[in-house]
Amino acid sequence: MKYLSTRRRHPAAKPLILVLALFLVGAVYALVMPSTRVSAAPGLSQQVEQGKALFQVSCSSCHGLNGEGTTQGPSLVGVGAASVDFQMGTGRMPMARPGQQAPRKKSQFSQDEISAISAYVATLGAGPAIPNATVVDPTNLTDEEIARGGELFRTNCSACHNITGKGGALPNGKYAPSLTKVDTVHIYEAMRIGPQQMPVFSKNVITDQDAQEIIGYLKSVNGSASNGGGLSLGSMGPVTEGLWAWVVGVGGLIVLAAWVTSKGARSK
């Protein structure tokens, strides 16, 4: 009669095998799957850290320590760097009082500080980025492209901003600000983020080429030292021209009618 010899396994064998299996699975996964983490450059990482420190000092009272938003200010998760660069670069943020329409004014922050805060907010969630300088530079546009920019502006923007970008009134006490003397990068950013009452114009609606041509048109009509002679009438387009034509034309007819009437009364 043969006896089969059996080995007793150590009680810790099964846990050790399980740990080893998990380790092997993790190692294989790390080797096979591409890394989704993007390693930031040392300079960018330092900029983000600087931006975070500035944000927590200057912005967190309204937007929360992590940009999550509060009752005083909206969440900044997913707004992108372009939104911060626009709002802070035009001096609209920080606001003096929540709820009012923020006017354009001189910024309280340097461009380096704005860039740092923008870089930090960009890490909170994907959103529109600050455009490259070549995208907003209209200097190489042809006359035909600038003319096309004028057509695009009149179709999409002039109802609020006026035919030459001088601004205009909106319902409920709001207004569309003037676009004269505005940096080209901020004009582009406004199209992409839709600040305040302005709608968002995505790249599917207004392409980068379209945006560049609109910028070229605005700089063309507002950049010349002369208006070509005559009264500008505020450069408000046919509305003010028609108003003055009515006032002068009808007013002249009234004066003429009164004069004829007075002459007729004297002759009697």
UniProtKB/TrEMBL annotation:
GO CC annotations on file: plasma membrane
Binding residues annotated for heme c 2, in chain numbering: 157, 160-161
GO molecular function: heme binding; iron ion binding; quinol-cytochrome-c reductase activity
Membrane protein topology class: Multi-pass membrane protein
Origin superkingdom: Bacteria
The keyword Isomerase belongs to this UniProt entry's keyword annotation: no
Protein location: Cell membrane
Alphabetized Pfam families for the sequence: Cytochrom_C (PF00034), Cytochrome_CBB3 (PF13442)
PTM entry text: Binds 2 heme c groups covalently per subunit.
Main subcellular location of this protein, as a coarse class: membrane
Transmembrane segments: 243-262
Keywords: Cell membrane, Electron transport, Heme, Iron, Membrane, Metal-binding, Repeat, Respiratory chain, Translocase, Transmembrane, Transmembrane helix, Transport
Residues at which heme c 1 binds: 59, 62-63
InterPro entries per the UniProt record, alphabetical: bc1_cytC-su, Cyt_c-like_dom, Cyt_c-like_dom_sf, Cytochrome_c_Oxidase_Subunit
Subunit structure: The cytochrome bc1 complex is composed of a cytochrome b (QcrB), the Rieske iron-sulfur protein (QcrA) and a diheme cytochrome c (QcrC) subunit.
Protein name listed in UniProt: Cytochrome bc1 complex cytochrome c subunit
